[in-house]
């Protein structure tokens, strides 16, 4: 059901670059690669940022900007800092490919997460709205929990920015100092962000012990962390489950025990016709592709497709093809539904 096209060292994210043959792949340890999946040709991109590789941090996401076709602008996320304080950064630069030389020029940071101690829950997933007007960024709780409920910090949030990194006008807390960029809150570690064909934003979130979530994101919504979770604290501390009337937006789908969703794709292609319109999540500890059957924005069924390896990323090709990246050393790039 899958065909191997390449292998990478701790791959983290991938994105097809429109109008080119290239699939961009990040490796957590700092490298950015371009691969033409049809021929197997690969180029290493020069000019990547200096990243702090520790804990869960390193080089993170890559997405083409809304002006990619005109000027080659791509957006990256990564972690900077040192052992005492680190945080995620979002930056943009211009990618050029000249023969066998690929490089990133003018890379500039446009947003920074507040630096904190620890090496986890950076999130730093990126997604542009379908019209290209807004850049959504997930900013994790950095394992501090309570900041997710605090509207004066961007930790534990989903942010809506303009393409230059400034808070987008019209955000739900625009008149509260420090909250101008916040779109939704009460998030733990959102590692997947994507839009469906109707323009709705979805997010996948790593729960604590159990309680991994797929959420339909509403502006101003409070998704509950750490006051509500269908999981528990590690070691058994109880957290109230999501419940009607608790003031928190309940997940559309959830998984207990944990499957560790590391990526999310709202699939609109036809390589696997039965999955069109559904949410596909790559499961790390679950070693599977998770499918949530969606009807009009509601989850009506879930399916687990065991793959025997940790799945780090899920992506759709410009031709509707479906691609997976395994996690870890030697992680394979797999095309689904052929061969
Ligand atoms: Ca929640
Ligand atoms: Ca619970």
From TrEMBL:
Start and end residues of each Glucose/Sorbosone dehydrogenase domain: 8-334
Source organism, top-level taxon: Bacteria
Pfam families: GSDH (PF07995)
InterPro entries named among the record's database cross-references: 6-blade_b-propeller_TolB-like, Glc/Sorbosone_DH, Quinoprot_gluc/sorb_DH_b-prop
PANTHER family with a match to the protein in the record: ALDOSE SUGAR DEHYDROGENASE YLII (PTHR19328:SF75), HEDGEHOG-INTERACTING PROTEIN (PTHR19328)
Protein's recorded name: PQQ-dependent sugar dehydrogenase
Organism: Propioniciclava coleopterorum
